[in-house]
Automatic annotation (TrEMBL):
PROSITE patterns linked: SET (PS50280)
Top-rank lineage group of the source organism: Eukaryota
One protein family per Pfam: SET
Signal sequence residues: none
Name used for this protein in its record: SET domain-containing protein
Domain SET: from-to ranges: 24-145
Length: 154
């Protein structure tokens, strides 16, 4: 039996960033009225594998603050702030564009993925990587970070 050669996770991520597509092996499912939709594995993923990109519009800190003032509360959760080259940036994924990354749910107790940024052509891209083995049927989750997210107090 020949062993399958593992794809380099960063190269895999760069491929999907360049093509603007989501990886095969993930699917959207409705969970419930409170949680909404989520992303589930339809195949096995190894620890360290690239899963998907959190795609959206890359905006400045100032534009992010402006949008936080005008967006409805349900859209504010799609504003992902992060530091890149010593400056605060934001990816706004509020627009429903068919990409899967915007639908990955928060889990501050036992997430199975971690958000990291990769630089491609001088721009940061937010990518999720598996922190452990993920089996078929499991929901993909990551820790949104320290904040008073409304669903955490439920």
């Amino acid at each position: 039996m020949q062993r399958r050669r593992r794809i380099n996770p960063k190269e895999d991520a760069k491929y999907y960033i360049d093509t603007g597509k989501d990886k095969v092996g993930l699917d959207v499912k409705y969970i419930n009225a409170f949680k909404g939709r989520g992303i589930f594995a339809t195949t096995f993923f190894q620890k360290g594998d690239f899963l998907l990109e959190y795609r959206g519009e890359l905006i400045s800190k100032e534009e992010c603050e402006r949008r936080q003032r005008v967006y409805h509360d349900k859209l504010k959760v799609f504003l992902f702030e992060f530091y890149f080259n010593g400056k605060l940036w934001c990816v706004d994924a509020a627009k429903e564009d068919g990409s899967l990354g915007r639908l990955v749910n928060d889990d501050d107790i036992s997430p199975n993925a971690k958000m990291k940024y990769l630089t491609v052509q001088g721009k940061p891209h937010l990518c999720l990587f598996a922190t452990r083995e993920i089996n078929q049927g499991e929901e993909i989750t990551y820790n949104y970070g320290d904040s008073d997210w409304p669903w955490r107090c439920k």
